[in-house]
Fold DUF6788 domain-containing protein.
Amino acid sequence: MSNEPPTPPANLPTEIVNTLNEATPEHLRDVASYAEALAEHKEREARLEEEVDDADVKERPDDLPDDVPAKATITIKEINDNRYYYWQWREGDSVTSKYKGPVNPDE
């Protein structure tokens, strides 16, 4: 291990580098843990957004419920071997779902 401090990535903003340089080892470990968890969360959100964008739209009725925006699409989710329709739409960085009903009305 070198006696020299590590070189920060070139694309890291100076303010962040300065803040990290002033942090205690304990805080740096907490920041590393948080940064890893946050990166995983953002990657998961991006994947979910892609899945919603690529989801098969099986039906698009004109009579949307009042609390479902016009941009919503209908997707099918399988839960415990049963298939259900859900409205899905984006609200900022998250995807919101609202139950519509079973795919097979007899279920």
